[in-house]
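Build the 3D complex.
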Amino acid sequence: MTDKRFVITDQPISIEGVVAEVVDPNAGAINTFIGTVRELTKGKKTLYLEYSAYASMAEKKLVQIGEEITQKWPDAITAITHRTGRLGISDVAVVIAVSTPHRADSYAASRYAIERIKEIVPIWKKENWEDGESWIGHHKETTAYPTGKPEGLKHD
Amino acid sequence: MIKIMLFAGIAEKLKQQQIVVDQQDITIHELRLWLTQQYPVIAGDVERAMIAVNEEFADDQTVLKTDDEIAIIPPVSGG
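Done.
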């Protein structure tokens, strides 16, 4: 497992660079997810976002997500890069690439990765709206860990 | 003495990125109580947050040592 496959960066993300990390002769599919900054949320207009991270732990948790994917889909190869700092509308915040021998697994594993990012990776988003600012934090819309640890929230 | 790393809204409220606690061998549960007493402004945040020890989420019974890397992890919102 190379360092380049699971990265937190304060620089713009190269989508092709993330995809290149999962190219494999056994793959019949590469699924790419690109998370971008949305302007309108429930009618509120975002001017820009600021992402901050506990970078060393966040990279470890991205590696963990890759390992979880390999347990579920043994032939999958995963790469994830998440950006931090100030991002404008339509900027790329996260890129996930998963290659698998067959396409269905690449879709499923990619979806699994983004949901797990929203549960266990210590990255925080601050919304800067027209009329104020707020740190966002819901752990997937929950406000507490019912089982004590976010690891307990795995879902298939 | 243990050092606690702060992030996001908690760091912003306290205008600092680290808290030094003049205690050791306390549990995370005891740390939560101490933080709530010392910094009432973040009491609600501490209640909702996870505590990470050496870059892993830890439960409230975990005992904190001087050399541990400890962080308060508010609800995450990446992606």
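Strands of chain B lie at 2-5, 18-21, 50-53, 56-58, 70-73.
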